[in-house]
Amino acid sequence: MAFNFNWSPLIADTSRARDMLTTALNKSPKPPIIVDDIIVNELNLGSVPPELEILEIGDLAEDRFRGIFRMSYSGDAFLTLKTRVQANPLNTYLSTRPSFASPQPLAASSSLTIPLQITLSDIRLSGFVVLVFSRQKGITLVFRNDPLESLKVSSTFDSIPFVRDYLQKEIEGQLRVLFMEDLPAIIHRLSLRLFVPEYQGSDETLSMENSTARVDPLSSSASDPVDPFQNSPFNSDSSSTETYASFSQKNLLRLATLTESQRTLSLFTPSMKETVFRAWAGSSERAENNGFGTPQLVGSTFSRAHSYTASTASAQTLSQSYDGVSIPSRPSLTSLSTMHSGLGSNYSRSRGHPGRKRKHRVVNLRRSGTSSADVSDTASVSTEASSNAASTSAPSWPLSDPAAVIVEKAEREGELQTPPQSPRKGVKFRSSEAENASEERGRDIQRQTPSTPKKNAAGTRDVDATPVATARGTSAPPLDERNFVSSARNALTSSSPSKSRPRLSEKQRPSWLTSRPPMSSTEFIQSSSGGILEQAWMMKMATEIARKVQEEKEQNGRNMWTRREAEACEGPPPAYTSS
Amino acid sequence: MRDFMDFVQNAFCEQSHWNPNNFYGTLTATAKALLDFDTPKGLRLSASSLSSRNFATSYSLSNAGIVDGSLSFLYSSLPLQAESRSSAINLQDVIEGYRHLQDLRKPDEPWWWEVWHGGKRVDRKAALLYGRLYLPRSTLEALYLRRISPTRQLRISYVSDSSLPQGGNVLALLQTDAGRYSTEYLYSTDSALFGVRGLYNFGAFPSSDSSSKPATLPYEVRSPHGRFSAGAELYYGALNASGGLSTGIRFSTLPAHTGFPYTMTLTLNPLMGNLSSTYAVKAGGDVALCSRFDFNVYSYESELQIGCEIWRLKRAPPAKILQGLRTGKDANEPDVRPGEDVTGVLKARVDQNWNVGVLWEGRIKELLFSIGAGFDLRKREQIFRAVGLEIQYSS
């Protein structure tokens, strides 16, 4: 474990530290030889940070920390003080005595004040420090022993050895007192000002801007997501240290703009950085494999995305299908997911490139006469997609939803000897997801679908084929969207095992899908990249969700899902082989 | 306003023919009285009594802090003859104002003090014992004064306070007043401070030998109109190696001077480079003005203070005033008759930083009062720095 000190004396603003040090030095009664206030002229923290060595950590939590360190400092920090001193020792002596038994000289005790400037440098500290950090109570720093080893005092009286030695002795003593007693109080107050909002109200210069920043993060001016420890601890003027929000303010602002655009029908769609769209999450693996995506982005947010999307999916599905089930619903996430998916669609839509072929917004995926159309659309869309993917940093499959992810997980689970019912669950899940997605997205889906057929790789599985066939079989105009979605999902999922699991694809290649030309973009589907952990986690989530769904399904016998499944099971159920 | 016990001590000194004005420590007494008067802070009551001619008591109560009080007792081996009732007390003795120097007087002969009775000397040196106990603060002050000889006085003062290092401090002061010159030796146990002070008066001095100077001098030796004095002091603290030195000169008019009496002093501290000059004049019978200018040669800091003192009489017969203006003589001592209502003294001072001090002292019925306030005219919002009222009653 290492400590990284952001020790930059040029950037650190020490004005507040200087003020607090001045107040602390003048608070205690001064010796009578000091006539005026002690003012801190300059405080330079030097270029060498102190060295800390951990001796013991007593309490460690998210908002609490307690530890004992051994600190040693031998840097070039210096401090300059300015004051006025009394030069007449008789005056100093007599001012502290009662006048009854004092000699009461006539003029021998007249005062002479001399301005004095003292520079403390070559400070050597070494001691044991107890550091207690608490989010509510701030930082407390206490020295176990007297840390001051040596100190160099230079003043305007350096030419007088008597005064120089006297000053050295006196100031060393005062500094020891300061380290042991006053410095913890100063640091505590500074930390309270930084971390605890209530204490900022007492500071008249910061109260207004802090309160406005905290109240409405969306209304504040766009500020970068701030690392709260980025600023020097002495700079408490930054009001952004309070916003520990997990969402960047910029992105929240952009989301607000997007929600507004649904009402205002504005065509402006801001691009959101450092986000993961729900549409990407399902195909994030493919994106990673291809390298077109943002592997770093997707990989880093992989777990988050999947947790996000999985939970979203579960919340959506379960909440919609089963009323009695109480789920720790996170409506914000669901709304954001829909927003993201909508955004994804907008995103893909707004990515206009000059040399691109115009894509058809309406695709007829009916079995009879749509194969050619699909092909053409697929080709067009595939070129668009490839060009998109090549030119953009984000994968251009907006239509990726948790169902696809779950199915992928299910597929992998099939490899890992998951229960045989999972495919069925996956199927059901996908179609339910298709319904939900279609209801929420509306016409966007139709726009999205052109991109999906391109994923209709050569290899598919019966798992994917069955619901598609079912959907095709019951192809009613209202179900078109669902068909599109499900077919898209099929395409997505089917494309994944094309390379890595060729045997499956060969076995389960339905006829209608084989007519589709193999995509050039099947390289996306390599799933070798990505963390093992994320994959395992994904699979675990998939099994859990599938299991839950199966349980709920078994609870309610009569259901449209079961009906659908019955329809889906007209044909022989696909064998979910794991080997 | 002088404390009752100080009044009694002064009475003791007067009665034992001791002139406290002939010392270097009181060189600038006029300027101090006119410019450095203490304005009372808070409310202070004191009740005192010269219960017998040898014994005096005084109790005081003030609201500095929560409550602050003191008890004091005084014993004098010399029967005191002062009028101590506050209804009849002479305000001149209680209120310090312009100090008029009197002609130098030859000190008493030592054999004047001998009292024989039945062939034995029964006289005892006059001594004064005084103690004061501050009750909440637990501070004790003690004083022992002894007139060793007509020209010598020993004064031992002691303070006991827990806040002092060594718990207390003893100051021993041996004063010698030989008329033309005076010396003081002092020693303080706190930081082993040794001090020497001396004053020398120039000019004619009534010689001990009344027939020393023949009257056949070509010029008439008039009584001097003014006196020039010079003095110095030296201190050395053995324990903390501190010391101090200062010199001063003074010129003051004597009662023989026609015109307004005035006093000029100049003190110098060569180690610290401090120069202080004062000029006080008694203009008219009721008004005294004083100014002081301080200057530091090393730090170029300067200070200017101006003060005035006005005696208010309830009634002043016009004839008396005219007479006073004509002669300019009796203006020295405004005739304050007992029983007059609300006569008093108004003192005011102002310095270069616009710190104003006002004090009004007087007598109401049988009480002596003093009301004072300190202003700081630069700070508009916090003008009043200290307001106080002090009431004395003595019997």
TrEMBL record, chain A:
Residues 1-192 form the SMP-LTD domain. One of its GO terms (biological process) is mitochondrion organization. Residues 370-396 have a biased composition (Low complexity). Residues 333-349, 484-493, 511-527 have a biased composition (Polar residues). The keyword Membrane applies. Belongs to the MDM34 family. This is Mitochondrial distribution and morphology protein 34. It comes from Viridothelium virens.
From TrEMBL, chain B:
The keyword Membrane applies. It comes from the Eukaryota. One of its GO terms (cellular component) is ERMES complex. GO terms for biological process: establishment of mitochondrion localization; mitochondrial outer membrane translocase complex assembly; mitochondrion-endoplasmic reticulum membrane tethering; phospholipid transport; protein insertion into mitochondrial outer membrane. InterPro entries: Mdm10. Keywords: Membrane, Mitochondrion, Mitochondrion outer membrane, Transmembrane, Transmembrane beta strand. HAMAP family: Mdm10 (MF_03102). This is Mitochondrial distribution and morphology protein 10. It comes from Viridothelium virens. The lineage of its organism: Eukaryota, Fungi, Dikarya, Ascomycota, Pezizomycotina.
